[in-house]
Amino acid sequence: MTQATVVDITVTKGSNDMDLIAPTPSDPNTISESQVNEKKPLSSAVTVTVAGAGGAGINLSRPFRTDPRINSVLFFDTSMTNIRPGESVNVITNGSGSGSNRSENAADIQRNISAMEKEELGLNDVAIVVFSLAGGSGSVCGPLLIREYARRGVRPIAVVVADTSHAVGANNTLNTLKTLNSIALNNELVIPVIVLSNDLASRRGDVDKMGMNLISVLTGLLTAPTYEVDRNDRLNWINPSKVAGSSLGVKILSLNTPGLTVDTDIVLGTQSNDMVDSLLVLTSSPDDDLVIKLPPARLKKSGFYIDKHPQIIGKISSDISSIEKIIDHVERMKNLSNANSHKAVDRLASNSSDDLIL
User: Fold this and answer.
1) Residue 89 near residue 80, CB atoms below 8 Å
2) How far, in Å, are 50, 222, 225, 229 from residue 42 at the CA level?
3) What is the mean pLDDT of the chain?
4) What's the chain's Rg over C-alpha atoms?
5) CA-to-CA distance for 253 and 130, rounded, in angstroms?
6) Each residue of 58-80: pLDDT tens digit?
7) What does the alpha-carbon distance between residue 188 and residue 335 come to, in Å, rounded to a whole number?
8) pLDDT at position 161
């Protein structure tokens, strides 16, 4: 199996009793006086909201409620069934849920999200919006939250879970991806996405854990105090079209660092070797050797941490071949579903209006 590395780790405990992997500073004396001035620079971090939409989004976002690096953690859903005691959620419809039907509450979700106050949305520099592509509530709420954050000056990043293992989920996955790209183009956005695949039910725990790990590493890349990378460097990394002239639309975001082996069947789009739209590279000192070969990029920014951290490289790429594979799989499933659609039931059908057929 092809594998790639993403995250160097220390282990802390999440509030849902799953191990959450998060890079943390361990040696405050890494940077010598000969490398930098003794005076600490102003913070180069951006402020971050994590918004979990629907069941999958809420589950993946839950451990970050106590993460001091994150300014707001918010839950959005169309019912209370995914909420645990002591938690709160923005119920954005009548509370009956969507039942895996994307159209069930779409009009209400769109109207209510547009009308939300800024406190309800937790407006910060960046919003990491987490949701399933394959469900009902999250797959509508997630993209509309991304659109609303962008309209209010917040840079959106999507962490999404695809599931093409069943016909309804496959169709929802494809239509949600189309929705995301349409929102990006119609609102002149770049929407970076981390794409996870949940096609095998037995791997759900692995998918959840990997998603939490990547959200944690992404948060570190956005918030750790650094030299030579300022706030706008990070914001322009998310939106390379602003300074590099790259195309708009959905783009793959991937994270690389030593330490954690990632199953590339779960984390899609990590193997791109083409030119990427933008690179953000952070190391523990300006003289660190890079542990992986960097692809050519339209925009590249490098810096180093004030305290010791694992090296992290964030790539945003227009190579969405992993999404094309999802689309191909969905099309094959649609054809198979249509070919086998209720054949036996159709053959049993009768023109008689009587229940009793003799």
Assistant:
1) yes
2) 24, 15, 8, 11
3) 82
4) 22
5) 14
6) 999 999 999 999 999 999 998 88
7) 34
8) 94
CA 34 – CA 293 distance, rounded (Å):
28
Q: What is the 3-state secondary structure (H, E, C) of the chain?
A: CCEEECCCCEEEECCCCCEEEECCCCCCCCCCCCCCCCCCCCCCCCCEEEEEEHHHHHHHHHHHHHCCCCCEEEEEECCCCCCCCCCCCEECCCCCCCCCCCCCCHHHHHHHHHCCCHHHHCCCCEEEEEEECCCCHHHHHHHHHHHHHHHCCCEEEEEEEECCCCHHHHHHHHHHHHHHHHHHHHCCCEEEEEEEECCCHHHHHHHHHHHHHHHHHHHHHHHCCEECCCHHHHHHHHCCHHHHCCCCEEEEEEEECCCCEEECCCEECCCCCCCEEEEEEEECCCCCCCCCCCCCEEEEEEEEECCCCCCEEEEEECCCHHHHHHHHHHHHHHHHHHHCCCHHHHHHCCCCCCCCCC
**Which domains occur in the chain, in start order?**
3-32+43-336 (3.40.50.1440)
Structure-token pair, residue 102: 């994307």
d(CA 105, CA 144): 12
Q: Which pLDDT band, with edges at 50, 70 and 90, does 99 fall under?
A: low
Residue 159: both structure tokens together: 């962490």
pTM (2 d.p.): 0.84
Specify the higher pLDDT residue, 110 or 340.
110
CB 284 within 8 A of CB 302: no
Burial of 32 (0-12, 13-18, 19+ CB in 10 A): exposed
